[in-house]
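in:
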C-alpha cells in the first residue's frame, strides 16, 4: 500500500489530480492516515504543493450497525486486534479500558491465518465486565455479494466465526435484542440489536 500511495503523492506533486479510493471510510483504519504519514515524511510544507480533500464514506462499523439495528446508539469505541503495527500489550490495555468503561466495542481485524487467539483473549477481557448473554454482531463481507450478518452472544463467540473481513460488534451491559414478527426473512422473524440511550422514559 505504501508504494502505491507514494506513487499517487508523486503524481499529485507533479501537478496531476489524483484520487485514492478505498473501501469503507478512508479515515478509519484506511488510506487517509497512510497518505498523511507519507506526506509528513516527505513534504514539510503541504500547503505549497497540495490541496487535500478527505471524503467521508460508510465505515464497516456503521454498515454493521445499520444492518443489525442500532447497537452503537450510545457510547462506543473501535479497537483493531491486529498487532502488526501496534504491540499486543497496548491493544490489551485498550480493551481493558473499554471493558471497564462499559463501551460498546467494535473489533476490526479480529482473526487472520496467523492470528487466531486474539479474539478469544478480547472476549475474556470483556467477559470480566459484562455477562455472557451480551449480544454480539458478526458482520462479514459488508457491501459484497456474499455479505452475512450473524447474531450470537459473547459467551458463544469463537474464533472460527470471524476472519479479516469480519467486523465484530460487542454490546455493553445495556445492549438488548428485539425480535420482530414473522417476515420475509424467515419463519422465525428477525432479531434486532440496539443499545438504549434513555430517550424513551416511561415516568413522565
Amino acid at each position: 500500500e505504501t508504494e502505491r500511495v507514494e506513487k499517487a503523492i508523486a503524481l499529485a506533486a507533479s501537478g496531476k489530480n489524483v484520487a485514492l479510493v478505498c473501501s469503507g471510510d478512508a479515515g478509519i483504519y484506511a488510506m487517509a492516515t497512510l497518505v498523511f504519514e507519507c506526506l509528513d515524511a516527505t513534504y514539510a510544507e503541504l500547503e505549497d504543493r497540495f490541496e487535500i480533500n478527505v471524503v467521508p464514506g460508510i465505515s464497516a462499523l456503521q454498515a454493521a450497525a445499520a444492518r443489525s439495528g442500532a447497537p452503537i446508539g450510545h457510547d462506543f469505541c473501535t479497537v483493531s486486534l491486529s498487532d502488526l503495527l501496534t504491540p499486543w500489550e497496548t491493544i490489551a490495555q485498550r480493551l481493558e479500558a473499554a471493558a471497564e468503561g462499559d463501551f460498546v466495542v467494535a473489533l476490526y481485524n479480529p482473526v487472520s491465518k496467523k492470528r487466531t487467539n486474539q479474539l478469544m483473549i478480547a472476549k475474556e477481557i470483556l467477559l470480566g465486565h459484562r455477562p455472557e448473554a451480551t449480544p454480539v454482531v458478526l458482520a462479514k463481507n459488508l457491501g459484497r455479494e456474499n455479505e452475512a450478518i450473524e447474531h450470537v452472544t459473547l459467551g458463544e463467540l469463537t474464533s472460527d466465526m470471524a476472519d479479516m473481513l469480519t467486523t465484530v460488534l460487542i454490546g455493553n451491559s445495556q445492549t438488548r435484542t428485539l425480535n420482530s414478527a414473522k417476515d420475509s426473512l424467515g419463519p422465525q422473524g428477525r432479531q434486532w440489536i440496539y443499545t438504549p440511550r434513555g430517550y424513551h422514559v416511561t415516568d413522565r
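note: The longest helix spans residues 88-100.
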